[in-house]
Design goal:
single chain; Rossmann fold; 6 strands; elongated; 31% helix; alpha/beta
Length: 208
């Protein structure tokens, strides 16, 4: 799978416990945070993945009565195809304020870990052996078959919620860090990620 396709695919093997919430942080100054109009930003080179992710997350927000817009509908191709200065981003913030936005939900992949495992062992993890001989015979190729291994990536993703406040710099309200196995079925992976993020934010009285 192309690395760029994974950039916002984030999220893991369908059928396994795909997305794992690793940690969260919430501003100690915030008890309850409600947002009424949120810009959903998924940072990735792959436009199809970005569109799918932002669409699902925006839909989730809308089911909770929050107005949401995808960044793909706001940022034109020229905007995302080149580096922006702090001044240009400040202008974007002003435009968002003028359009009534009060929060930005920003997701990106921040790192990758490579894992090595025996082929087929992920699906057979729960196998129970009642006899040593059976266990040994079934796994003895570990001694001599170096090609019986495969590698896969775990992607470290981060979703941050920023408040757009009048007369204040954009302030971090909440952040969640998640681990995601290398995606196989993108749609299921995105659904898993969105569900995990929504549940975590709900538990901490943020938006949901």
């Amino acid at each position: 799978m192309k690395p760029k396709l994974v950039a916002l695919c984030m999220l893991l093997l369908a059928g396994c416990s795909s997305t794992k919430l690793v940690s969260t942080w919430k501003s100690p100054d915030i008890v309850l945070f409600d947002a009424y109009k949120v810009l959903v930003v998924g940072m990735t080179e792959d436009e199809d993945v970005r569109t799918a992710f932002e669409t699902r997350l925006a839909e989730k927000l809308k089911t909770k009565g929050v107005e949401a817009m995808r960044s793909i509908d706001l940022f034109d191709v020229e905007f995302t195809s080149s580096e922006k200065s702090e001044k240009e981003l400040s202008e974007v913030e002003e435009q968002l304020l003028e359009k009534g936005f009060d929060a930005i939900l920003f997701t990106k992949v921040v790192g990758t870990e490579n894992k090595r495992t025996l082929k087929g062992k992920i699906n057979r993890f729960n196998d129970m052996y009642t006899r040593f001989s059976t266990d040994y015979l079934d796994n003895q190729n570990i001694y001599y078959n170096s090609e019986d291994h495969e590698t896969f990536n775990i992607y470290n993703a981060e979703t941050s919620l920023y408040c757009i406040c009048v007369d204040k710099e954009i302030e971090l309200i909440w952040r969640g860090n998640l681990d995601i196995m290398e995606p196989v079925k993108i749609e299921k992976t995105i659904d898993s990620y969105v569900k995990t993020i929504a549940n975590a934010m709900k538990e901490q009285d943020v938006i949901f």
